[in-house]
Write a structure and sequence with these properties.
Elements lengths: L14 E2 L2 E4 L1 H8 L7 E13 L17 E6 L2 H4 L2 E2 L2 E2 L9 E2 L12 E11 L13 H5 L2 E9 L2 E2 L8 E2 L2 E2 L6 H7 L4 E10 L17 E9 L9 E2 L1 E6 L5 E6 L9 E9 L12 E8 L5 E6 L5 E2 L4 E3 L4 E4 L2 E11 L13 E7 L4 E8 L5 E3 L12
Parallel strand pairs: 2-3, 7-9, 18-26
Antiparallel strand pairs: 1-2, 3-4, 3-8, 3-15, 5-6, 8-9, 9-10, 11-12, 13-14, 14-16, 16-17, 18-22, 18-23, 19-20, 19-24, 21-22, 24-25, 26-27
Length: 387
Amino acid sequence: MPGPSSAMGEPFPSAILGFPVLTVAQAEALAAEPETAGRAMAVGGYYMESTMFCPTFTEFVGPFNESCRIVGFGDTEEAAQACDTNGCDTRNARGFVPQFMAESLSAPVGNVEIEPIILIAHVGDPRQWQCPPEYVEHCAGKLVVDRLVWADGRVVEPSLRPVYDDRGSLVPSRRLIDIETSLPDGELLLSAVVVHARDVFSIDPRFGLTGDQLVWLVRSTMLQSEPIDATHAETVSVIDDSSGAVVASLPLASAADYLPARVWTSAKRTGMTENVSPPDTLYPAYSIAGPSNEAIGEAFVSTTTFGSNTTLSYGPFQPALVEAGTYSFTAWLQDVNSDFGRRPADAGCTRDYTFAPSDDVEAEVIFEKSGKCAWQDLTPPDFGGLP
């Protein structure tokens, strides 16, 4: 996909890793074109970021952090300046600025003073489908970082960000270099993260996987010998940490006719003891079985609670994406300190739901104090209770 040639000047190189380096203005203009979605581009600019005290989120806008960031990104140092003698402007976090995510390689840690950087990033990230209906288009325009490749005059080697679950850090058997060298010849590693198979959907919700085994979710692109194309197609792959085998792969760009149903799960635990929140290490979890009874996903509804001490509420937080059809939803109370899915054979409750393309619905399950539960009728999603 040809695009604008690099207009970068000192101190930025004009090309890196087979990409022409675009200015922030060029990248923002290119990102507005529909065919750019899901394609990688190299963007150079001046960047600064600082975190701020953030006791609560004022609104739920999905997986992208906008409420607690002071961030600037522009073609000059002045354009990247988000703070002055009058204070700091947090509104820039809603604009065309880098979103460093769990899979972003070599992401900066902590506050960043204004410095020149080059990153490989994309718009049209699949996490747009995890945003509330009114924010999907807004989230699709987010500049999601695959990899920081250059900073302040030096090439940045890829490094993995630490990842944690409810029981501590995840320690894979393979190293990042192992994953990098296992890619097909000519393939450039762009991003990588280690997660439980069941958690892949939190980064790319199009994958429906189950189990506690560790997998790598990586994005890559074919390395170009000449920096001609402004954007490169990306491939997303799931690699088993134990065997090194590719479990599944998809183009990062979603098909134009991709119209999944989005099912937002939520839960309540009723009849709880006064002044004990949370009362134990049990949290609502669910699994989904497809039309042929195949398992296509499982997750905690949420491990964050809100509401009164006698009725604890969870979610809706991240939707499951399903094709049109009928699916079985099973819920149970999962101990965060035990292997996921381990529960008594008679525990939980199951209900079938039927979905049409583009459905946006909430499926709520209500637990009694005894642990018995029941799924409710589908309703439009309600995010009013989220912090």
